[in-house]
């Protein structure tokens, strides 16, 4: 039932590469202008009038260190008129935030392995959540969050922004149906070395497939409805595991790269290739490729090179992707608007949370309108299984025994098949 609530409070946990940039910049626009101006990009423009009077206020930013939280709050207050978010810090800043504020929407942009605790805490206190991908690294934690959100009529959305990339949408919505029955695919996403060694201090608690492969998994499950059946995975540990002797100050016990083959119930096989050790000299921010073959045709897309290249003195030849996020000048303002598909899933999740919070819709009614936690469930099974399979195969390969380990995927999770165990 529609209520009179028009002013919503929000908080952010995490101030790293995404939290302090993409997520915070998105919240900034929502507080400055409301949600209505951004709905047209995601096909929800018909909701603009109904949501035009709803305002959002960022009341807190929580990070691990006081310095980061204070800097982000100060910068935010300079950019947004009358904004005054309060900094919180520590190992569990969300606990202190909820003790002080009644938060309606919590944005979680913590490291991969730390999404569960703040999300659970928020749900237990009746708050909606936007969480960076992946939802969790474990199925049992994901199921707990999914069930609790369903029980409490709360929105839990996962920032799967590649669903909103106009190139991906065109491939999967316009072209995929024209290639007949899908047979096989190859999906590549490679991150720069600085991600694993400098930007993320937590790389050892995740792996390149969990971190970025989840995006590709989501595209195939979301757009094609593919259900995973089995997983084979291998990975290499040559650089990061020896980082202390390769120019770094510590060992980072994680895979440099992973190659994961997933067989789906419809017969499709997808080969996922992910790494986070691309050298800084690589010409793009990331390397992304997609190949999808079917009985009637084939689609190939170099997503890293979208046709924009520049060669500059002191920089060299580089390719750029301004479609992800871009600053748009506001006439008469020193602070630009923020636009791009990197913001779109955050908009979709925020809009869903607003509708449920003001009584315009229920969470169940909006299941198809944003990247829900439930839609990530099968992908979480795959990333959890892949990490397990790759670790087992890595040991077998070191012993000269090959990579015989696979996992069978089912509704309840995965089952390991290791003939050498």
List the helices and strands and how they pair.
Elements: E1 7-13, H1 18-33, H2 48-51, E2 55-63, H3 66-79, E3 86-89, H4 93-100, E4 105-108, H5 116-124, E5 128-132, H6 139-152, E6 156-159, H7 166-175, E7 182-192, H8 193-199, H9 208-224, E8 228-236, E9 257-264, E10 269-278, E11 287-294, E12 297-302, E13 309-312, E14 316-319, E15 326-328, E16 337-339, H10 341-357, H11 377-398, E17 406-410, E18 413-417
Parallel strand pairs: 1-2, 1-4, 2-3, 4-5, 5-6, 7-10
Antiparallel strand pairs: 7-11, 8-9, 8-17, 9-10, 11-12, 13-14, 15-16, 17-18
Helix pairs in contact: 1-10, 5-6, 9-11
Give the name of the CATH superfamily of the largest domain.
NAD(P)-binding Rossmann-like Domain
Order of helices and strands: EHHEHEHEHEHEHEHHEEEEEEEEEHHEE
Tally of helical segments? 11
Oligomeric state, counting identical vs distinct chains = single chain
Which residue ranges are poorly predicted, with pLDDT under 50 across at least 5 consecutive positions? none
Compute the average pLDDT: 96
| Biggest sheet strand line-up | 12-11-7-10-9-8-17-18
The structure class reads: alpha/beta
Strand content is 25-35%
State the end-to-end CA separation: 57 Å
**Number of self-contained structural domains:** 2
Instruction: Name the shape in a single word.
Output: globular
Rg calculated over all Cα atoms:
21 Å
Q: The CATH topology of the largest domain is what?
A: Rossmann fold
If classified by CATH, what would the architecture of the largest domain be? 3-Layer(aba) Sandwich
**Major β-sheet profile:** 8 strands, mixed
Total number of β-strand segments? 18
Give helix % range.
25-40%
Highest CATH level, the class of the largest domain: Alpha Beta
